[in-house]
Amino acid sequence: MCGICGELRIDGSAPNLDAITRMNRALERRGPDHGGSYSDGPLAFGHRRLAIIDLSERANQPLIDNELGLALVFNGTIYNYRELRADLQAMGYHFFSDGDSEVIIKAYAAWGERCVERFAGMFAFAIWEMRAKRLFLARDRLGIKPLYYSEQQGCLRFASNTQALLASGGIDKSIDPVALHHQFTLHAVIPAPRTILNGIRKLSPATTLTIESNGRQQERTYWHLAAQRPEQEMSEDEWVEAVHDSLRQSVERRRLAADVPVGVLLSGGLDSSLLVGLMAESGVENLLTFSVGFEDQPEEKGSEFEYSDLVVERFNTHHHKYEIPNGEVLKRLPEAVSCMAEPMVGQDAVAFYLLSEKVSQEVKVVQSGQGADEVFGGYFWYPRMRDEIVGEPVDRFRRHYFDRDHDEFLESVTAAYRGEDYTAERVAGLLSRPMADSFIDQVLRMDVTTLIVDDPVKRVDNMTMAWGLEARVPFLDHDLVELAMAMPPEMRLKEGGKYPLKRIARGLIPDAVIDRPKGYFPVPALKFVRGEFLDFMRDILDSQACRERELFNRSYVERLLAEPETHHTRILGSKLWHMALLEFWLQTNVDENFREKPLKAELFPHIELGRLSRLRSFERSVVVSSINEFNEVL
């Protein structure tokens, strides 16, 4: 797990090595163990390493194989690297390191662009062909690892996050109106290749991109997920047994592909508890588990310790439990936002950020339960969509999922950003893709291949890698996903959803965990729009920067502020928070005067001095010169 970046010149000039240095510096948190760079003619690479497999210097990157004429920068883990290594050795390839990175180089030499089809893992990597002067970029099937790029006059730059590309300079920072529509309709999910900024794009999951020295590009999608029943019928018991075997293999793959200890983020829910049970079932001793909780609010408990404690007691894990004061949540929120590659409205982002800070002091790798709800139908809106029979698929979907209908979106933004119903058009296209037997098959497949990529998966990657912590997601093993998508959806949605997982868990983990109501990562301080949290959002949306941006329709903002706890999305998100988060992300990561200058009273003439003092603590720089040291608070 690492941070990667690079630049390819297609105008005949040399790459900008200063830009590579700036990008590498912005990626330092993702890879605190080593930094390196490489250049060859029109190409330059940068890399920050988090050492997990082959801890020696031989596995440092950029990884250069002069014999094959290939150079690599790689972020992720190839879980089947040992098997591939044996195959490649049998073909006559010789290895100088013991990690998975060199396996990618040899695999590319052996199988070319189709090497990705043999990889089981999460990855984003770039390979430079020294002789052909050709750049090859690739991203894993389910988009677990990010890969952003920017095409400027005469060059293409890429990086693991947008902060690195912004640090390189010359990026078009204007807002993409289509992406803005997605941002406010799909709870901040902007499907690839767009991002909220016109000047930054991202490689789609399951996609490779080849760029020749003359600038010619060829993009290829190498994996398509079907949601169809197999020719031979299977009984319920056979399906459950198949899922059990596949999940067990997935967890074991992610445990064994490491030369460091692997822990588990234990929320107290079914998914993470099942991971603990499966690891214990496989004979893991001294299992490390980690939980976080917050202060209660009158309406909601701030932790799920009562459930995670049951799992700890059952398996006698070496447990770490962290309790975070609510005051710490708002205080640290700006740091979390500064580490978001894109604006993300999930209120558990800061929870993952604070938990990862603690966990990274104990281990470098954890397994996490993300993806189980999407793959096995655990959310409450799936049955509602299934039972919806009126209208086209996109209409049946939007009634239970879209944050705002198109008319409300038009009302929420200024005239410059009003356009067509871009999100409905995009969702209709995703749902209509071939190889899906029913409407709910279409929905579950779209969620797994598109929506999850730019919501929980990206959120977990960003927040864990902000502390040099690698999170592995066994429920998104592509073999397991393919199996689940072939299963009748009625079986997955049975008994409130995730029925196969409940069957597997019964007798393995405590019944109280299996039978509990569906829970979400509780962060009460950010869920209830009142007090300091409301003051914070009001300050952001009333700021001079927000007003001068002229993105939001002020009458719409004022209506939300007048009744902050009454405007919710269909899946119970705060519309006010959606707007404040986007504005704050732009101020924190994009606006030069907020990123590089002290907060001054004249920027906020409407805020009295006491409130300005508090706001000062929110407006923080996140330029990090060392993994252990933050710059001064802005």
From TrEMBL:
Binding-site residues, L-glutamine: D100
Record: residues binding ATP: L265, V292, S368, G369
Enzyme class, spelled out: ligase
Molecular function terms, GO-annotated: asparagine synthase (glutamine-hydrolyzing) activity; ATP binding; transferase activity
Catalytic activity: L-aspartate + L-glutamine + ATP + H2O = L-asparagine + L-glutamate + AMP + diphosphate + H(+)
Family annotation (NCBIfam families): asn_synth_AEB, trio_amidotrans
Name assigned to this protein: asparagine synthase (glutamine-hydrolyzing)
Source species: Candidatus Reidiella endopervernicosa
